[in-house]
Design brief:
Low-confidence stretches: none
Shape: elongated
Radius of gyration: 45 Å
Oligomer: single chain
Largest sheet: none
Order of helices and strands: HHHHHHHHHHHHHHHHHHHHHHHHHHHHH
Mean pLDDT: 85
Strand content: under 5%
Length: 645
């Protein structure tokens, strides 16, 4: 299905441009807060921006001039082979780096990570209702907690209960996400874009440093982008020409179920569902120009975008209700609906004093209402009502809070380093070497984050001028996350699942640069050829003009002198000259040749004239020829006179 531009598409791109520009401003300002050499670091960051931008354009022009892409595509097997080797090597390097962090930065679960670990262990042993009453109440208020706990429980059942096994599970989810990002980039922009997206996802510092945490972000991100990849396949590859209409319907159902599973881990998956519906509902599949009865009935049925969206939505709702019921049976409590479950998060997110982050005051308010009502649902409703009061109390302060929350969420990408520093110090595992490594990784990560934000910003500018792209869906994920966290509780690590969006968008932008470089080289070559052709035409015209002018001069000269040009007449064939063979015969003997060569010029002329006269005397001559003979005789006398003298 072809994506068409509309006013909402343009609005979303413009909002993303503004958002990325503000991230760049915040990022440059944030690095200047360093106590040691703040302005030097700011200057270095700006220099990196310049070098990265110029470097990418230089490489793009070089590749275009050398025609590297076309040479690789000549041999499809070679191209696929090189790409496969590259993917395998990058994945191995990514795995090694993540495993090294797990081994060298030992981490015991704390805070929310400890909750995941202990709930999963109780679920494994079947003691959650007996020993975890407090956890059951906590899950009843925040049902998404149990999603990641189910994953950990299955890991513990297969490999044993340990933090190390949970970290390895996250490592596998992370590697799967890296590969999926590569496939998404390749689908949206080709081999080059896929290769760049793969490299970015494999070596993004914060996603490597965070791997030792028992966090739900890795599994959530894996299922989120797996859902996105499946949607792109259905939107870009599934059309009315397919002979597998039933398979397409089933894949739409699978997509809805996959989003439901993702939402069970973190409710932010609803953003992807909304983005898909916004993208697909207005579309309509173009049927091929063949008899209608040759098109599968299921393909005709799924030809309308709203039908596809309905299939995805219904399958999502059905499985979501099943998972919610399973959660209620597991904890033996009713859980709030989607709209009710955001009460506490909304209350915290609108707290001006805590800048939208966790605070003890709102936490006490939640548990006080839980104790007084005995119902997690009522506690969430009370928080929601209090949040609405805050929202209407001071509009200027709330607006200032929203801008501040955006800066806190997107201004840097330090969560991997800061959480490691905090927990390692708390657990007495922070050595000087580890602290130095984490500090260096933090600086490197900030530069990487800012460079990809810069290229994402430029890509969005390109999108305003180009045809509609399915990059629209990842951009909607970014905008949805921004909108959600402007209201609810916000932390820097909550943008974890949006980082792949920046990787993909920036990689597509680099692909646009390489594409523009090919066009520039092609147009410059054509312009050079046109200039060369024009130059040759001018030279030919000038040469022809000179020849015509020369001929005109000769004609004028002839007309003025009224002379006969024998040479031109002979060359043009107007006069034919014939000579007797006797005149052109060489001397018959070698002796005569040597005599002639040895004589002086006068002697030579004399002998030649004498021989001619002798021949003439042997031939009977008429009156005309007699005059010629007499002239020869006089010539001989003249020669004899000169010789005597």
């Amino acid at each position: 299905m072809k994506l068409e531009k509309n006013w909402f598409y343009q609005l979303c791109i413009l909002l993303s441009v503004v958002g990325m520009a503000y991230i760049l401003i915040c990022g440059v300002s944030d690095i200047s807060k360093s106590q040691q050499y703040p302005y030097a670091r700011k200057g270095i960051l700006i220099l990196v921006f310049f070098l990265a931008w110029v470097g990418v354009h230089f490489v793009a022009l070089l590749f275009a001039r050398l025609n590297v892409g076309a040479r690789l595509l000549k041999s499809k097997k070679l191209s696929i082979g090189l790409e496969s080797v590259y993917v395998i090597l990058v994945l191995l390097a990514a795995f090694s780096l993540r495993y090294a962090v797990i081994v060298n930065l030992p981490m015991e679960p704390a805070s929310d990570y400890k909750t995941y670990y202990e709930v999963a262990d109780m679920m494994k042993h079947g003691t959650l209702l007996e020993k975890g009453e407090g956890y059951c109440n906590y899950i009843a208020m925040f049902p998404h907690i149990i999603g990641y706990c189910y994953i950990l429980k299955n890991v513990f059942q297969l490999f044993g209960t340990s933090v190390y096994n949970g970290q390895l599970a996250n490592l596998l989810f992370s590697m799967g996400t890296v590969f999926i990002i590569y496939r998404i980039g390749r689908k949206l922009g080709g081999q080059l874009v896929g290769a760049i997206a793969l490299f970015a996802a494999a070596f993004w510092p914060s996603q490597i440093l965070y791997i030792n945490m028992l966090a739900s972000e890795y599994s959530f991100t894996f299922f989120l982008y797996l859902s996105l990849l499946l949607f792109l396949h259905l939107a870009m590859d599934y059309d009315a020409a397919t002979k597998r209409g039933v398979r397409g319907v089933l894949l739409h159902i699978v997509l809805g179920c996959l989003i439901a599973v993702t939402s069970a881990i973190r409710p932010m998956a609803l953003i992807l569902l909304i983005a898909i519906l916004i993208c697909i509902v207005p579309q309509k599949m173009k049927l091929p120009n063949i008899p209608r009865n040759s098109i599968p009935i299921w393909a005709q049925f799924m030809g309308r975008g709203w039908v596809r969206g309905l299939v995805i939505l219904v399958s999502y709702l059905i499985l979501s209700n099943v998972l919610t019921t399973n959660t209620e049976l597991t904890i033996n409590r009713s859980v709030p609906s989607f709209s009710e479950s955001f009460g506490y998060n909304l209350l915290v997110g609108l707290n001006v004093e805590s800048k939208g982050g966790w605070n003890e005051e709102d936490s006490k308010f939640l548990y006080a209402n839980l104790d007084s009502t005995g119902s997690p649902i009522q506690a969430q409703i009370a928080c929601r009502d209090q949040a609405i009061i805050r929202l209407n109390s001071n509009s200027k302060a709330i607006f200032d809070l929203l801008i501040n929350k955006y800066e806190l969420l997107w201004g840097n990408d330090d969560y991997g380093a800061t959480w490691n520093l905090a927990f390692l110090k708390e657990q007495n595992n922070l050595t000087m070497e580890r602290a130095g490594f984490i500090a260096s990784a933090m600086e490197t990560n900030h530069i990487v984050y800012m460079v990809f934000t810069l290229f994402s910003f430029m890509t969005l500018i390109y999108l305003l001028q180009r045809n509609a792209s399915y990059l629209y869906v990842p951009i909607l994920i970014y905008l949805g996350t921004v909108a959600m966290h402007l209201l609810v509780e916000s932390q820097n690590r909550y943008h974890f699942h949006v980082l792949p969006v920046m990787m993909i968008v920036a990689s597509v932008g680099v692909g646009y640069i390489f594409e523009n470089a090919k066009g520039y080289v092609r147009s410059s070559d054509l312009l050079r050829q046109e200039k060369e052709t024009l130059r040759q035409e001018k030279e030919n015209v000038l040469k022809q003009f000179e020849e015509e002018e020369h001929q005109a001069i000769k004609t004028r000269y002839k007309s003025m002198t009224n002379s006969f040009d024998m040479k031109a007449a002979i060359d043009n064939g107007n006069v034919v000259v014939t000579v007797s063979e006797k005149y052109i015969e060489p001397p018959k003997t070698q002796e005569n040749q040597e005599v002639i060569k040895s004589q002086d010029p006068i002697k030579k002329d004399y002998d030649q004239l004498r021989k001619i006269l002798e021949r003439k005397n042997k031939i009977p001559v008429n009156t005309g020829k007699r005059k010629a003979v007499n002239r020869l005789k006089s010539k001989i006398k003249h020669v004899e006179w000169r010789k005597a003298k």
